[in-house]
Structure formats: structure tokens, C-alpha cells
Design a protein that fits this description.
CATH topology of the largest domain: Rossmann fold
Largest sheet: 7 strands, mixed
Distance between the termini: 50 Å
Strand order of the largest sheet: 8-7-6-9-10-12-11
Strand content: 25-35%
Number of helices: 8
Structural class: alpha/beta
Shape: globular
CATH architecture of the largest domain: 3-Layer(aba) Sandwich
Radius of gyration: 18 Å
Length: 287
């Protein structure tokens, strides 16, 4: 007898993945958490019936959200990651030679716990001495830093590794959150968030892009191919107070990317710049 997981991604479109077994199924205080062992993609983390990542290709999303903004910044010492309790973006950020401290703010501690248990190769850096884990609401966290944080508490880079814009993550796609995040950055800070599919979430990309353009001196959108996400094409929206996120900062001129060739499965200096080359239909969205 065959067993399949089906994700209804748009109401009119979805994907199905053949599963070997259900490794975990439980409810946290915030969401339904399921981990499947699948024949095609290995272990898959599913939150509220939506795929977050699959073992086989998780590196694409985590490398592109974590590394593009950091290698655009001259000296990204302090990083804030909102969401991302699986630890994948933390793992990638720590490949940057300048990173000294990461605050991981994840509202659902259960995601952190199950990731450590079932995805140790992804959560492998959560115990690193440079990482501080805070199980709280990321929206309230940046609001607090923005309103009362000292300059030393502000960040060089803020990354939003959120679920879809429903439930606990809905507020992470609103203007007041983006403004508070900007106020939590240093004067040359970079903000980057995942912004869904250019095929199925055009209004969201347009609205977020407009807000980021109004808040930051420089804004841009880049894409990556991720098979298990709706349409397979995914977008990231970046806002920078100073740097051009389309290019690797000159402070890395002597950085040996070849050292990480085995660890970097998707990202490269060539991918960094080419990911900002957008198809015409996405350019039209941003107009």
C-alpha cells in the first residue's frame, strides 16, 4: 500500500510526495508539526500542512537567505534571525568570517527541539558559542530593540526566515514590522526576508517590495530554485541602508570561497550576482 503526503499550495494546485513513514506528528502551542520520511526527498519538515524544507535540497533556501545578505555587507558581526528554528540559516551565517554573534528569535521552541532531534545536520550549529536562542515573538523583539535598544544592541543584518504569511507569521509581512526592523539595524544594516513565489504570490511581492523601497536607500529582489516550494521558484526581498546587495562586498576580495566548496552546494560568487537577474514578468511585478 502506498502512502502520500499532499500539500494544497494554492487551492487549485499542489504537490504530493510519497512517504515511507511518519516520524513525528504533534501540535505545539502555535502549529501542527509533522516530519515525514520520504522516498524522493529524505526527511521533510511540515508545519500546518506546508512543507518547510526537505533534507535533499534544504541547502538552497538556507544558503541563499543566509549568505547573499552577509557577503554583501562589509563587516556583518551581529546577526538577527527571526524564525528559522531548524538552524539552517544559522549554519550558513557562521560560514561568514566576520560573524561574531547571532540572535535566533523563534516563537515556537518545539521547532528547535524537533530539529535538533530529527535534523542534526541542519541544526548542527545551534549550540555554537556565538549563537543565542530566544524563544519569543520576533515582532515584539524587534519592536523592543527599535524603541529602546542601545546602538550596541542593534544588528548589522536581520534575516526573516518565516513560514507563509498566515497564523503566527502574518505580522512578519506588515509595514510596522519592517519599520521596526529597520530601526533595529545599524546605520549600514541589511534586511532580507523570504517573500514567497513570484508565480503565486505576486501581490505580496509587489506590496513588500514597495514598502522596502520606501524604507531603505537600496532595495532589490533575488530568486532561487527550490523544488518543494510552490512553483519551484522562490523570492527574497532585501533592503540595505548602504550596500548594494547585488554584489559581494570588496572586503571579501581575499576570501577563499573554494575553501567552502564542499559546504556550499548552491551559493557561489557567480550565483550571488546572477540571482538578481530577473525575468521580465518579475520586473513587471516590481513596477
Amino acid at each position: 500500500m502506498e502512502a502520500w503526503f499532499f500539500e494544497n499550495q494554492t487551492g487549485n494546485f499542489g504537490i504530493k510526495i510519497r512517504i515511507k513513514s511518519v516520524l513525528l506528528h504533534e501540535f505545539s502551542d502555535y502549529q501542527e508539526i509533522t516530519i515525514y520520511d520520504t522516498l524522493e526527498f529524505g526527511k521533510v519538515l511540515v508545519l500546518d500542512k506546508a512543507v518547510m524544507f526537505a533534507e535533499k535540497n534544504e541547502f538552497v533556501y538556507h544558503e541563499m537567505l543566509g549568505l547573499v545578505p552577509l557577503f554583501s555587507h562589509k563587516n556583518p558581526e551581529r546577526i538577527l534571525i527571526i524564525g528559522g528554528g531548524d538552524g539552517g540559516v544559522v549554519r550558513e551565517c557562521l560560514k561568514n568570517p566576520f560573524v561574531k554573534h547571532i540572535d535566533l528569535v523563534e516563537i515556537d521552541k518545539k521547532v528547535i527541539d524537533v530539529s535538533k532531534e530529527f535534523f542534526p545536520e541542519i541544526a548542527c550549529k545551534l549550540e555554537d558559542r556565538r549563537v543565542r536562542i530566544l524563544a519569543e515573538d520576533g515582532i515584539e523583539f524587534v519592536k523592543r530593540i527599535n524603541e529602546g535598544g542601545s546602538e550596541d544592541e542593534k544588528y548589522d543584518v536581520i534575516l526573516v526566515d518565516s513560514t507563509d504569511p498566515v497564523g503566527p507569521a502574518e505580522g512578519l509581512f506588515r509595514r510596522d514590522f519592517y519599520e521596526a526592523a529597520a530601526g533595529s539595524l545599524k546605520d549600514d544594516g541589511i534586511f532580507t526576508a523570504q517573500t514567497e513565489s513570484p508565480f503565486f504570490n505576486q501581490n505580496l511581492i509587489k506590496d513588500v517590495g514597495k514598502i522596502i523601497k520606501e524604507i531603505y536607500a537600496k532595495s532589490s529582489l533575488y530568486c532561487a530554485s527550490i523544488p518543494v516550494y510552490p512553483s519551484g521558484l522562490w523570492s527574497f526581498t532585501a533592503g540595505s541602508k548602504k550596500y548594494d546587495t547585488k554584489v559581494i562586498n570588496e572586503s571579501y576580495n581575499n576570501f577563499d570561497f573554494g575553501r567552502f566548496e564542499a559546504d556550499l552546494k548552491y551559493y557561489s560568487p557567480e550565483i550571488h550576482s546572477s540571482s538578481f537577474i530577473l525575468p521580465n514578468f518579475i520586473k513587471e511585478i516590481l513596477k
